[in-house]
Amino acid sequence: MSNTLLKYVCISTTTGITLYITLLGLLTTASFQAHIIYLHKIQLTWSSDLNTPEIFGFPHNQVTPFCIPTSHGEALYAWHILPLNLYREHEASLLAEPPGFVPDITSRLAFKLLREDPEARLVLHFHGAAGTVGSGYRPPNYRALSAAQPRKIHVLTFDYGGFGRSAGTPSERGVILDARAVVDWAMNDAGIAPSRILVFGQSLGTAVGIAVSEHFALQSPPVVFAGMVLVAPFVDVVTLMATYRVAGTIPLVSPLARFPRLFMYLGTFVRDTWASKDRIARYVSANEDTGEKYRITLIHAEDDWDISWQHTPMLFWHAVNATVPAGMTYDELEEKKDERRKDLGSAGSVVEWRTENGVMREEILKYGLHDVIMSYPVISLAVMRIFTAVDTSFK
């Protein structure tokens, strides 16, 4: 009996080790990495027609599904979401329009309400890995984004290439090009000035939002948006690998973090590094050099099982460090943060770092998990705080 049990344990252990080594081998290949990083084949809305946004709780024709062309010839599937009070004011006219996908959004009333209103604000929404524009907590997130000013804050969300109805295959370079195409559409087709555009990203979307903001800030002349709100960000993919667990429970390569040399060797195979720590530092440094006003809000929940909340203080440090000529260590900044931190009890804590040009805000919530937080009032407040900082008359 004992020999049989020992044999069973040995076979099971050997099988497990073999499968894990096979997984590590697959992780060194570009195609498998793409599926792990982006999870783009996991749609989560297979049985729901994205061209019928009413399925996701929106009033009839509050959402306009359409496509945005890109420089690399692919079309990105997008939703333009009207703020609720503005929808209510024009409900009769909107109901008279045909529902569903719109080949030419410029012909629709919703687009005209965005383009022709000098008071309109636009949140560009960059979602996380897996799913589509209609998945999970994303629809409630769109409502939270405009809740603080439900007449003037529009939301534009889209699926990256290879996600949902958007053609292509995701890669770091490709997703950034997708994001740039969406920004170009917002500024040129919709005619929204950068000062009336806010970049919002969650999870993977934070890396996308930082990358596209950096790209435009480095232009000549620089193009700087009203600000960025980044929820559940991460420092970079390699650092994320050291802590990431699927569904918060199943580790992929985090066990190997105990072996630094082996872990760093595996890191050399990572194709899409999404180095947000470096990009956010360059973004801050560029704005400090040019004197452009910028605003960054980082939000994370301590009970986030997917991306450890510790990524946010680290990213905050890289951003702040770009404003200090002599630099400072992480521990030195933590000491300064202790002096400035506002303890909100069970709601968490807030720290702000201000310079002559910028405001960087770190909000650590006690609760909110990875996705649930997107529907919280803290999101509405963060958006409104940035828009009113740019224009105090915006109410």
Automatic annotation (TrEMBL):
InterPro entries linked: AB_hydrolase_1, AB_hydrolase_fold
Top-level taxon of origin: Eukaryota
Domain AB hydrolase-1: 123-313
Claim: Cell membrane is one of the keywords in the record: no
Record Pfam families: Abhydrolase_6
Alphabetical keyword list: Membrane, Transmembrane, Transmembrane helix
Transmembrane segments: 6-27
Designated name of the protein: Monoacylglycerol lipase
Lineage, opening ranks: Eukaryota, Fungi, Dikarya, Ascomycota, Pezizomycotina
